[in-house]
Amino acid sequence: MTNENTSAGNTISTGNTAELTGFAALGITGALLKATHGAGFTEPKPIQTQAIPPQMEGRDIFGIAQTGSGKTAAFALPILSKIIALGTKRRAKTTRALILAPTRELAVQIEDTIKILAKGAHVSTALVLGGVSRFSQVKKVAPGVDILIATPGRLTDLVREGDLILSDTKWLVLDEGDRMLDMGFINDVKRIAKATAPDRQTVLFSATMPNEIAELAKGLLKNPIRVEVAPQSTAAAEIVQGVVFARTKQKRQVLSTMLADEAMKSVIIFSRTKHGADRVTKDLERDGFKAAVIHGNKSQNARQKALNDFREGSVRILVATDIAARGIDVPGISHVVNFDLPDEAESYVHRIGRTGRNGMDGIAITLCDPSENSKLRQVERIIRSKLPIVADHLGSPDPVRNPAEKNERFEPANDRNDRNGRRDGRRPGGQNNGFGKKRFGDKPAFAGAGERKPEGAKPFKGNNKRRFGGKRPAARAA
Ligand SMILES: Nc1ncnc2c1ncn2[C@@H]1O[C@H](COP(=O)(O)OP(=O)(O)OP(=O)(O)O)[C@@H](O)[C@H]1O
Ligand SMILES: [Mg+2]
User: Fold this and answer.
1) Span 96-154, pLDDT tens digits
2) Closest ligand relative to 66 C-alpha
3) Is residue 131 part of a domain?
């Protein structure tokens, strides 16, 4: 991988006439430029200024920039620009560009952004993700689409069944690239990449990039340009961060006291587990706060509704697991509260990045029990700073629990760790969960992050190994 940085400025001289500025200087023209301006994007963000020109030249990109800094348009605009230039001829069941995202909600959001940026430009988009009708997705891709946004599980299923062909796919984007290359997704992603056009252009973007994952990226990117607006894991400067020391038993009261402050206009509360998210939501209700909740045990409709209600402002509090930590862009979130620390330090950077986006202010408060001190230190190591202590309740006694609540049973979900010990929420699979076969019924082997196989489903034990696209016996998948 090269360390070469683009020095593309934001002004291109056109000779002796006018000089181009803004997005026009980056090569964005015509209807696309008009729609970009229509979306309120007049001045490119630094990641856009640096990453768009080399993509327009066909280069692979390894892009790192803080949360909320405009990475979506940085990968979407060059692809749109090239696809518009190609015209409308497409082959059935193919897609010209493929954008992979780790969660369904993020995929939906990326499609929304692309539709806005491509307004009036006759570019077709489709979504392929788990938890919703497969049939309508197959129908949508049948005539061929320009840009497909997908989570890897359902995509794998469609390709395996021959409902989608990737050989015409010339652009591949890994949004939240480090997540897409971690152990939960890497095998699916490698197989998907292998099925795309050999001369494809690949770009990868994230706000975090652990070294070992950067190594893996080398296998997918060809002589990429590294565009690093800030060192990986740098939090957006606008986010004011702090830690509150409180024992687990004190956290409910600490949280409710905080939320009584009306300055907390729009708050996302992160919990490490699905069960924890449900419990926090219930406790908030008991304390008089209405909250929506989003986690991987909810139906897709319930997940999307919770997010939409929060986005539209009909609830001011969203309780979430890490499925909402990456990429979700809800302008105006004033506060992020980490009810507990995440298992992976990188998740902290993404969680707090739901606030302080696009130059806005934001506050991120982390509640830390003494048992979480080592996780706190890991977070401080990757963000390269110490979190200021906002309050310390450790010297105070635990609050007395309401006796009426004491006897209530709260059904624990089977999710001690939201990720079941893996980074993707999937249960550990056996040897037989390769690309080429189904593990149960007609469901895909895996269904992506925060997506889970049906309760009690058993891995498929048959001998129907197949290649990605065909019916022949499998050669070992890459
Ligand atoms: N050039 C621009 N001008 C104005 N607003 C912009 C511009 N580019 C992006 N935005 C806005 O900034 C916000 C954040 O953008 P985006 O979601 O792409 O960030 P991101 O870098 O992908 O963040 P994350 O790491 O959390 O995924 C969005 O609301 C988007 O509409
Ligand atoms: Mg993003």
Assistant:
1) 999 999 999 999 999 999 999 999 999 999 999 999 999 999 999 999 999 999 999 99
2) 1
3) yes
pLDDT in tens, 377-389: 999 999 999 999 9
Same domain, yes or no: 159 and 189: yes
- One DSSP character per residue, 392-418 reads E-TTSPPPPPPHHHHT------S-SST
Q: Which residues of 377-393 are buried (b: 16+ CB within 10 A; e: fewer)?
A: ebbeebbeeebeebeeb
Please tell me the distance between residue 385's alpha carbon and the centre of ligand 1 in angstroms: 25
Residue in this structure with the two tokens 């950077």, named with its chain if needed: 349
Inter-residue contact 188 to 156 (CB < 8 Å): yes
Same domain, residue pair 91 and 144: yes
Distance CA 143, CA 416 (A): 44
Q: How many CA atoms lie within 13 A of 374 on its CB side?
A: 2
* Domain-ending residue, one of 406, 428, 460: 406
CA of 13 to the centre of ligand 2 (A): 31
**At 58, which CATH number?**
3.40.50.300
Contacts 24+ apart (CB under 8 A), 89-92: 90/124, 90/143, 90/144, 90/145, 90/146, 90/168, 91/144, 91/165, 91/168, 92/142, 92/143, 92/144
Interval between CA 352 and ligand 2 midpoint (Å): 13
Residue nearest to atom 10 of ligand 1 (CA): 70
Q: What is the pTM of this model?
A: 0.86
- 207 Cβ below 6 A of ligand 1: yes
Question: Is residue 10 within 6 Å of ligand 1 at its C-beta?
Answer: no
Number of domains in the chain: 2
Count CB-CB contacts under 10 A for residue 143: 13
Tell me, in angstroms, the distance from the centre of ligand 1 to residue 285's CA. Answer: 33
Which residue segment(s) compose the domain that 89 sits in? 45-228
Ligand 1, atom 22: nearest CA belongs to which residue?
A: 71
Q: Ligand 1 within 6 A of 448 CB?
A: no
71 within ligand 1 shell (Cβ under 6 A)? yes
411: which strand partners?
none
SS3 call for 177:
helix
Q: Is the CB of 45 under 6 A from ligand 1?
A: yes
117 CB contacts (<8 Å, ≥6 apart)? 32, 35, 36, 39, 41, 73, 76, 77, 80
Name the strands in the sheet holding 201-206, side by side, starting at the edge strand that comes first in the sequence. Answer: 125-128, 145-150, 95-100, 171-175, 201-206, 61-64, 225-228
